[in-house]
Amino acid sequence: METIYAGDTNHVTITCPKFGLTKNxxxxxxxxxxxxxxxxxxxxxxxxxxxxxxxxxRKIVRLSGExxxxxxxxxxxxxxxxxxxxxxxxxxxxxxxIVKNDIVxxxxxLDNLNETELQxxxxxxxxxxxxxxxxxIDESSLNQDLVLYLRI
Length: 152
What we know:
Layout: E1 2-5, E2 11-15, E3 22-26, E4 36-40, E5 46-52, E6 59-69, E7 74-83, E8 87-92, E9 103-109, E10 117-128, E11 131-136, H1 144-151
Parallel strand pairs: 1-5
Antiparallel strand pairs: 2-3, 4-5, 6-7, 6-9, 7-8, 8-11, 9-10, 10-11
């Protein structure tokens, strides 16, 4: 099953898996519905696609790293669960004092050929027990290797 990304435009191109015919669709009306859609091609093929309304592709990963909160003088180990060019989802191994809107420094190594080490500031968007979601504060400061890594 294909996953299609709407991005900022709320428009997607759906491709028939049988003949490769394409159809452009505005998906604005699908924001509050299940994200698995049934599509039908003019060739008669009926198939399903997963609709992702995120701005950017999110890669599922298992990367070890560390966090540090300057204001609270707290640090610990994390497991990065998924990452995109705009944000990151990670889990701590122990209870923490991270709350929404904290600024956390994350340091982790990509599992690419160069084992690229990244260090960046993240604004915490949500916290659910040990699971945390954050947004990169300065996307442009991230290493170009992250962009390449997300394309693999």
